[in-house]
C-alpha cells in the first residue's frame, strides 16, 4: 500500500494542479487507464467542492491498495458539503453525482481537529 498527499490552496486554479498530481502518481504505478481516469475525475470533483465550500489549507490524498485506489480531500473545517449516504439527491450533472457513479464507496470523516476528509474508493477491477 502506498500513501501520498499534495497540499494546495483553496483557489480554483489549483484544481488543475491536483488533477495533474494524481495523474502523474497513477502513471507511475500499474493502474489501468480507465480506473486512472475515474480517479482523476473524482479527485478533481472533490477538490472543486472543497475549494468552493471548505476552509483551507487543503490536502489531496491518494492511497493505492491491492484491490482499489482511495482518494480524498482534507480541509480545515467548514460545512459538510458532501452527503455520502444520498449523493443521488444532488442535482443531475453535479460533481457528487459523478463521484457516486465512479466509485464503489464514499464517505466523510470528521476529524478531532475540526476538519474533515471526504473520500471515495475506486476498485482496480470491475
Automatic annotation (TrEMBL):
Keyword Secreted found: no
An MF annotation (GO) of this entry: protein serine/threonine kinase activity
Entries under CDD domains matching the protein: HATPase_RsbW-like (cd16936)
Keywords linked to the UniProt accession: Kinase, Serine/threonine-protein kinase, Transferase
Domain of life: Bacteria
Residue span, Histidine kinase/HSP90-like ATPase domain: 8-120
Matches recorded under Pfam families: HATPase_c_2
Signal peptide from the UniProt entry: none
Protein name: Histidine kinase/HSP90-like ATPase domain-containing protein
Amino acid at each position: 500500500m502506498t500513501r501520498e498527499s499534495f497540499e494546495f490552496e483553496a483557489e480554483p486554479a489549483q484544481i488543475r494542479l491536483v488533477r495533474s498530481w494524481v495523474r502523474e502518481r497513477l502513471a507511475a504505478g500499474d493502474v489501468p487507464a480507465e480506473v486512472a481516469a475515474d480517479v482523476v475525475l473524482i479527485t478533481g470533483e472533490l477538490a472543486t467542492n472543497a475549494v468552493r465550500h471548505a476552509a483551507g489549507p487543503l490536502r489531496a490524498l491518494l492511497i493505492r491498495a491491492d484491490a482499489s485506489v482511495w482518494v480524498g480531500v482534507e480541509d480545515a473545517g467548514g460545512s459538510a458539503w458532501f452527503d455520502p449516504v444520498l449523493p443521488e439527491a444532488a442535482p443531475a450533472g453535479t460533481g457528487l453525482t459523478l463521484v457516486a457513479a465512479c466509485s464503489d464507496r464514499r464517505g466523510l470523516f470528521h476529524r478531532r481537529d475540526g476538519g474533515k476528509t471526504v473520500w471515495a474508493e475506486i476498485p482496480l477491477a470491475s
